[in-house]
Design goal:
The chain has about 375 residues and is mainly alpha-helical. It folds into 2 domains: about 20-335, Rhopdopsin 7-helix transmembrane proteins, CATH 1.20.1070; about 355-385, no CATH class. The protein has helices at about 25-30, 45-75, 85-110, 120-155, 165-180, 180-185, 215-250, 260-300, 300-305, 310-320, 325-335, 340-370, 380-385; strands spanning about 190-195, 200-210. A two-stranded antiparallel ribbon has the order 1-2. Helix 2 runs antiparallel to helix 3, helix 4 packs antiparallel against helix 5 and helix 8 runs antiparallel to helix 11 (about 325-335). It is found in: Cell membrane.
Length: about 375
């Protein structure tokens, strides 16, 4: 269910690889159809299916539960709604939507039905669009967090971002992906292809399909996305964290270093280390995906002759999608006070429940003792005495 630059294959051809199912190879790439290997059979395909199933289930559990807890905590506790946490909240919302809405359909498509979409054209378009928007929202949120940390640490004397400005920034974090992801919805469609070497039925392929006469348009769009949503943001984030690291590790703090300043410096360093780890994980997870897409769309003949091209795509997509799990663990569970507040609230609620249960038990015992005597005692009197 990714991006595909393709044409309608001619009548009588039976490409076995859904990744390349809609290419007109003899017309565009001069690759005979009988040389296109069947990558949906064999042990490698089976192993990749198991791997992607485990990754998708992990995403649903970690991103679904973890981000849900973070969002609920952010809504409940007003003191946590600082600028940085609001930006992290956008990241949590986008990962939560993918985990709850997209992943169940992806499990059915990739694992259960093994590359067959049975949920209609509307959901095919919606899932493709939502996944694309979520990816770009995550990128923009990480970029906004990096810039916010840069302004707070490198330029501490400048006024911090106001909430009114932050809300406009959050609006931009969402509106840009919503607009530039429109082609992923417009060109997403269903395509039926034969199943197996001898057609005993068919499967339905759900992906973006661009026709051959739109090849230049698609490649221009891909380069635009690559620059705007990967290369550019990574370069800016790397520059911000390089300046922040220089400020925190290689610059002397003016004045006498008190214990409070040292503690604050250590806390900032830990935060920056976590953010740099998130950036490195983002690059390691998504660089292979963009690299494979670049190779697929500009040099497709290299991929189509490889038997395990679909298996490679499975593994690469697993690595890319697992970035949401890393973000959740770093931002929600490790480097944020929301987890502490949630734990504190849970403990407080447990103490309240335990206290109410104890009061109820004492009340029952006292009522039983009083009813055995000749005194006439009402329930209100008992409650008043217990309190």
């Amino acid at each position: 269910m990714g991006e595909r630059n393709s044409t309608t294959w001619t009548q009588g051809q039976s490409p076995q690889d859904p990744l390349m199912a809609s290419y007109d190879f003899t017309l565009d790439y001069d690759i005979p159809v009988d040389q296109i290997p069947d990558t949906t059979q064999g042990r490698a395909f089976f192993v990749s299916t198991i791997i992607i199933a485990m990754v998708l289930v992990c995403i649903m559990l970690v991103c679904g539960i973890g981000n849900c807890l973070f969002i609920v905590t952010l809504v409940r506790y007003k003191k946590l709604r600082n600028i940085t946490n609001l930006l992290i909240g956008n990241l949590a919302v986008s990962d939560f939507l993918v985990a709850v809405v997209c992943c169940p359909f992806l499990v059915d498509y990739y694992v259960v039905k093994q590359l067959s979409w049975d949920h209609g054209i509307f959901l095919c378009i919606s899932i493709n669009y939502l996944r694309t928007v979520s990816l770009y929202v995550s990128t923009n949120a990480l970029l906004a967090i990096a810039v916010d940390r840069y302004m707070a640490i490198v330029h501490p004397l400048k006024p911090r971002m106001k909430y009114h400005t932050a809300y406009w920034l959050i609006f931009g974090v969402w509106i840009l992906p919503i607009l530039i992801s429109v082609p992923s919805a417009y060109f997403a469609t269903e395509h039926e292809y034969p199943q197996g070497a001898v057609a005993h039925g068919s499967k339905i392929f759900c992906a973006q399909i661009w026709s051959a006469d739109q090849q230049l348009l698609y490649r221009s769009y891909f380069v635009f996305i690559l620059v705007v949503e990967f290369v550019g943001p990574v370069a800016v984030m790397a520059s911000c964290y390089a300046r922040i690291s220089r400020e925190l590790w290689f610059k002397n703090v003016p004045g006498f270093p008190t214990e409070q300043l040292e503690r604050r410096l250590r806390r900032r360093r830990r935060t920056v280390v976590a953010l740099i780890a998130v950036l490195v994980a983002y690059v390691l997870c998504w660089a292979p995906y963009y690299g494979f897409a670049l190779l697929r769309d500009f040099y497709p003949s290299v991929i189509t002759r490889e038997r395990n091209s679909l298996v490679a795509f499975y593994i690469i997509e697993c690595i890319a999608m697992s970035n949401g799990v890393i973000n959740t663990l770093c931002f929600v569970s490790v480097r944020n006070n929301a987890a502490k507040c949630l734990k504190k609230a849970t403990c407080s609620q447990w103490h309240v429940v335990s206290r109410n249960a104890t009061i109820t038990a004492v009340k029952v015992v006292v009522e039983g003792d009083m009813r055995t005597s000749s005194l006439k005692v009402t329930e209100d009197v008992e409650c008043t005495r217990i309190r």
